Sequence to fold (329 residues):
Amino acid sequence: MQGIKILSIASYAPETIISNDDFTSFIETNDEWITTRTGIKTRHLAMGMPTWKIGSNAAEKAIEKAGISKDEIDLIICTTITPDTLIPSTACYIQRELGMSGCMAFDINSACSGFVYGIDMAQKYIASGSVRNVLVVSSEELSKITDYTDRASCILFGDGAAAAVVAPSDTAYSSFLGADGRGADFLRATCINPVPHPFFELKNINHEVDENDNGKLFQDGKEVYKFAVSIMPFAVEKALEKAGLSVDDIDAFIPHQANIRIIQTAASKLGVPMDKFCLNIEKYGNTSSASIPLALCDAIEEGKVKRGDKIVMVGFGAGLTYGAVCIEY
Fold:
């Protein structure tokens, strides 16, 4: 299988930092309760900065670090569940902000599995021979869909972005991706304020709206947890099986940063010590598709991931989607 390499990766976190204590002003909670159940201490909020701007800030740095010109980017894939517009795509706004034109640009919505899906899609395009350099941008502004009246979920989410420039390589690559739509309603956010059009009245159709369909994030925490702790080790094992590797061959695991307990349970099922898992959930919270590349950025800066290391990135999210990719960094 055609290999790929991450030429560069860069991140952007909005300046405003919200601590656990900041939530005590409007919901019944405290720092200890949040920390022990989630592992989160702080999260960054964009405070109205557009999702495309968060993403373009990370993308600009990634291209500069890659040492290539913007004209050498053949494809922009943006992963996001919080676009600023239904149309056009966030990728097109990012392309415009970067002063680029001509290359393909589109969004994918695979929720928290987005970066894994985006990397795998980049590999497929590169393997086809139609492109060489792919810019994968994961940009999320979850604060604009978070339900801040929901004590259980509002503490989890933050904003941020990371971008990677992906190119061909002669190194090994394997992946395992999937989805289970039976759990589609366990984690969702609908179109904001769905309003029936005039033809509902004309045709005498009663339009009923679910109370959860308010444009805010709805999560069935128990169901998502059950799914996550089983699917993460499963996806990792399948990706490694394709690669002919075992967990002992992997230098670092970069999981979706949803909840420390989920990661701990998955690590236990895999028989992998926690020190092999790269974590930054304490600083950023759950940033959906941006969480894996944000964690990879920090791991590289801290020396936990080095050139030549075999790494596995694994995610799960709304859909319910899941996936793991195994590459050499």
Summary: The first helix runs from residue 31 to 38. The CA atoms of residues 86 and 261 lie 34 Å apart.
